[in-house]
Each structure stands twice: as structure tokens, then as C-alpha cells.
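for the recovery benchmark. C-alpha cells below, seq after
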């Protein structure tokens, strides 16, 4: 690819203006320029490059893999984008400028020279098809909102402990459920709940499942209402109660909004996954349900030429470890420089597969008996799954559990003796 590029461009991106440096592949001095973050400026800059180099490919290296600038440059087919890890540039700068001097134009030139001299250390950005890109954005957004919901739920739990513990007894361990949020929206304080009429309480209290030993429903309800009215306040400090009431009302609104956003996002994910050309393939893997199958599809995409070996994904996702050797010492370390959401996807799939796959469950038992930690086992299991997923993806064949187990028997794998002894939990 290096020989095919007509020029090398390095961009030190910023919020309003980007420092850019261009080095022609044919030789010559580095040419500095500045690009404003506006559609007109970016379009004019790209059009000038297209005319100047007759539409030949031009490498563009920058410290971003996504964002406003990347999305703007993606529309030009002659620009080949090379995202660079900021740590790489920092180490490169320190090697050339030990004094610690730094400015944007110099950084842009360093990025351009790094691309020219070390393009074999960078991975060109290959745009995926529309369905894959949509899945990646929606699944990452859903995960972020789920994490936000957990944080809000934890804060709500703390507020309820401080002023409204009675509500925790009525929550059923799901503080983000729509029914419980509706209860808090109607009665944001314990006093308001206790002062409500029996008819209101009957309407808003969570329904309890009837068991044979329970008294008749009307009598049970009367007893519950009487018990609720007798529960004392945990504090009578007025400032605390007023503050907590306001905080609870605010958190309820945020949780209801985020629940709605997550539902909409899940609907979008379902729609986009149905359009994905490899939806059936990724849905065939054990443990890859409605949440994880789209995430696996967004990780691999539909371009079979993007990855040449399973190791490409193992290293990109951070599942493959890093080895440091010096003399007689040899240290194996976890790989930290990777997309965290991507690594999380394979970790979670490995964990979910243990309840659906016979050999995955056997692998956990085998490694546990060796004394490995649970996280080490999950990384090892994810490593194995990545090899399997890559082969199925490359050959466009859905996963077949029995076929893989027959393969383990044929190769004399140590896993075989653990498979029959330890069936999956949900078998």
C-alpha cells in the first residue's frame, strides 16, 4: 500500500482548526497547512488534493478512529485513513525531541513521517457496509446507556436508603422497572405514600403472586396497607427529606428517559441486524443472543478481506496477550492498547457461551482445576472462540457444535474427557 500512495498526510486534529502536513511520495519538502472544521473547508481541501494528485490514493494519518473529522473524510474514496494510537505518536515524538518540545504543526509532520516510514505498523481503516457501521454505533450506544442506567439506579438506591427505605421493600430488586418508577413518580416520598388513600395504594402497589397459604386477596391487601402506614420514617430531618424528594423525582425522570432510549436503540439494533448479510451466521454461536450476536457481527463485518488471520482480531480486540522477553526472562502481559468495547464483547460472549456450549463449559472446568483465575479462563475461552468465529466467518458457514466436538475427538483434545463429565448448565 505504501508504494501505491501518492502522498502522505498527517493531521493533528483540534476542535476548530486542524494542523495538516503533506509529504509527496515522489519526494520533496513537507508542506504545512491548516484546515478549518467546516464542511466547506474540508471539501475544498479534499478537492484540491484530488486534482493535484489525479485522484490517486493518498494516505491520511491521524489520532482518531472516529469523530467529526473522520466521518467527514470517509466520504472521499481516494483518501486512505490510518488511525494511530496517541501513545505511538507520543513515543515517536519523545524519541525525536527529547527536550519535550511540542506544537501542532510539528505533530502533524511527525504523523505524516510516521505513516511514510512505518506504514507496516499501522492498519488502514476499511469502511464496513452500512448495516455493520449502524450496528457498531447502536450497540456501543446501548452499552453506554445501560452503564448510565446502572449508575443512576445506584444513586437512586442510595437516596432511598437515606429517606425512603420503604420503597426499597416494594421495588422487587429492580429499581429501573417502569412499574416501580411510576410508583416513585406518583409518591416521591414515604409520607406521600403513607398518606394516600387505600384506593390509590391498591392501584399503585406492586402486585404479589398469590400462594395457597395466603389469606383472601382483599384481606391480604388490607394487611399490606396497614403495615405500610405503620412503617416509621428513617429520619425526620426536614432538609434531608426535601432534598431526597427532589433528587428522587429527578432520578425517576432520567431513568424513564433512558429506559425509553434503550428500548428504541434495541429496536434499531434488531432492525439493522435483520438486514446484515451474516445475521444467521453470528446468531448460530452459543451464547450470542439478541444483545451479543449484533455485537459480534459489528466486530467482524461482512468484508472477508479485512482480516487475513484469526490473530488479526485476537490482537485488535486485546484478547491476545503481549509477551516481553529479555535474556532468560519471559513475561506474558494482558494487552491494554485495544478498543475496550470490542474486548468486552468477546469477554461477555465467552461467559454466556458456558451455559450453552458443552465444550466451553468443559474448558472452564478444565482450567479451574489447573488453578487459573476466572478472568484468565474467560480470556482463554474468548481466544478459542475467536479462532472458531473467524473460520466460520471466513468460510461463511454457521457454527455447528457437534461438528466441533467431533473435531476435538479426532485431534485427541484434553477437553474431550471434561465434556461428558460436565454438561452445560442449561442442557
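predicted aa per position
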Amino acid at each position: 500500500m505504501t508504494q501505491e500512495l501518492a502522498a502522505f498526510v498527517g493531521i493533528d486534529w483540534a476542535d476548530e482548526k486542524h494542523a495538516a502536513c503533506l509529504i509527496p511520495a515522489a519526494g520533496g519538502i513537507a508542506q504545512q497547512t491548516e484546515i478549518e472544521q467546516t464542511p466547506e473547508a474540508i471539501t475544498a481541501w479534499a478537492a484540491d488534493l484530488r486534482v493535484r494528485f489525479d485522484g490517486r490514493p493518498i494516505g491520511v494519518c491521524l489520532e482518531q478512529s472516529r469523530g467529526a473529522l473522520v466521518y467527514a473524510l470517509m466520504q472521499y474514496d481516494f483518501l486512505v485513513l490510518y488511525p494511530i494510537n496517541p501513545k505511538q505518536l507520543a513515543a515517536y515524538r519523545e524519541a525525536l525531541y527529547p527536550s519535550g518540545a511540542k506544537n501542532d504543526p510539528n505533530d502533524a509532520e511527525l504523523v505524516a513521517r510516521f505513516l511514510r516510514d512505518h506504514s507496516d505498523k499501522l492498519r488502514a481503516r476499511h469502511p464496513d457496509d452500512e448495516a455493520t457501521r449502524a450496528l457498531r454505533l447502536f450497540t456501543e450506544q446501548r452499552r453506554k446507556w445501560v452503564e448510565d442506567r446502572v449508575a443512576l439506579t445506584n444513586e437512586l438506591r442510595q437516596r432511598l436508603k437515606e429517606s425512603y427505605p420503604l420503597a426499597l421493600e416494594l421495588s422487587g430488586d429492580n429499581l429501573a422497572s417502569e412499574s416501580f418508577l411510576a410508583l416513585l413518580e406518583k409518591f416521591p416520598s414515604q409520607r406521600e405514600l403513607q398518606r394516600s388513600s387505600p384506593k390509590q395504594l391498591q392501584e399503585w402497589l406492586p402486585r404479589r403472586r398469590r400462594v395457597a397459604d395466603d389469606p383472601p386477596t382483599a384481606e391480604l391487601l388490607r394487611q399490606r396497607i396497614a403495615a405500610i402506614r405503620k412503617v416509621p420514617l428513617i429520619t425526620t430531618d426536614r432538609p434531608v427529606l426535601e432534598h431526597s424528594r427532589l433528587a428522587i423525582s429527578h432520578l425517576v425522570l432520567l431513568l424513564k428517559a433512558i429506559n425509553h432510549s434503550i428500548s428504541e436503540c434495541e429496536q434499531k439494533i434488531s432492525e439493522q441486524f435483520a438486514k446484515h448479510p451474516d445475521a444467521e451466521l453470528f446468531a448460530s454461536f452459543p451464547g450470542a443472543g439478541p444483545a451479543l450476536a449484533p455485537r459480534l457481527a459489528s466486530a467482524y463485518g461482512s468484508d472477508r478481506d479485512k482480516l487475513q488471520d484469526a490473530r488479526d482480531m485476537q490482537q485488535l480486540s486485546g484478547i491476545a496477550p503481549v509477551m516481553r522477553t529479555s535474556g532468560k526472562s519471559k513475561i506474558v502481559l494482558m494487552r491494554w492498547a485495544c478498543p475496550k468495547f470490542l474486548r468486552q464483547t468477546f469477554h461477555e460472549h465467552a461467559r454466556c457461551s458456558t451455559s450453552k456450549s458443552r465444550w466451553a463449559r468443559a474448558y472452564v472446568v478444565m482450567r479451574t482445576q489447573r488453578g487459573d483465575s476466572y478472568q484468565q479462563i474467560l480470556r482463554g475461552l474468548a481466544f478459542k472462540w475467536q479462532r472458531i468465529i473467524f473460520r466460520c466467518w471466513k468460510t461463511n458457514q454457521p457454527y455447528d457444535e457437534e461438528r466441533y466436538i467431533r473435531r476435538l475427538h479426532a485431534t485427541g483434545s484434553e477437553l474431550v474427557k471434561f465434556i461428558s463429565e460436565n454438561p452445560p448448565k442449561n442442557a
